[in-house]
Amino acid sequence: MSADEKTQAKTEQAKGKVKKAAGRAVGNERLTAEGRVEEAKGDARQAKEKAKDALTD
């Protein structure tokens, strides 16, 4: 997995978790949903990179 893509995936996952937690803490469903989406994007990016790595090994 390229270091840049891995970093970007981890960043998206972390930002998503923070947004999701903040949304839950203040009762803001929209912020919670945005957090879930951002976290899912990070998960998808990470999965794509892992699959790419598996094919090149």
Q: What does the secondary structure layout of this molecule look like, with pairings?
A:
Blueprint: H1 3-26, H2 29-56
Would you mind describing this structure in some detail?
By secondary structure, this protein is mainly α. 91% of the residues lie in helices and 0% in strands. It contains 2 helices and no strands. It has helices spanning 3-26, 29-56. Helix 1 packs antiparallel against helix 2 (29-56). The longest helix is centred in the last third of the chain and has 28 residues, at 29-56. The N and C termini lie close together (11 Å). The model has no long low-confidence stretch (mean pLDDT 92).
DSSP strand tally? 0
DSSP strand (E) fraction? under 5%
Contiguous low-pLDDT stretches (5 residues minimum) are: none
Question: Structural class per helix/strand content?
Answer: mainly alpha
Q: Tell me, what's the shape?
A: elongated
Q: Compute the gyration radius: what is it?
A: 13 Å
How far is the first residue's CA from the last residue's CA? 11 Å
Q: Determine the number of helices (DSSP H or I, runs of at least 4 residues).
A: 2
Largest sheet: none
The SSE order reads HH
What is the share of helical residues? over 70%
Mean pLDDT: 92
